[in-house]
Fold Quinol monooxygenase YgiN.
Amino acid sequence: MIVLVNKMTIKGSPEEYERLYARAGAFMETQEGLISYQLVRSQTDPRTYFNVAVWRDASDFERAGRDERFHAMFAEMVDLVEPDQHICQVVHEGAPGRAA
């Protein structure tokens, strides 16, 4: 399992970014290997968003990222955001009710 953490600094309209993200998210939901994703907005800096996506493995994420439909959707966002992407591995996790 890998976790994609993508910090997006908005240079354009946040509403436009959210609209385009929703469309890209709907596409990603059809991709094999996607487990879950969230778009979260900073309460400290409302021009900062984080896309957090959990994938089965890096090859699934890379395959989805090579799709021409994804490239076309990302091209629409390129002037709206400054991305800072990190592909991460889970080293520790927790949830209420789990034994230590």
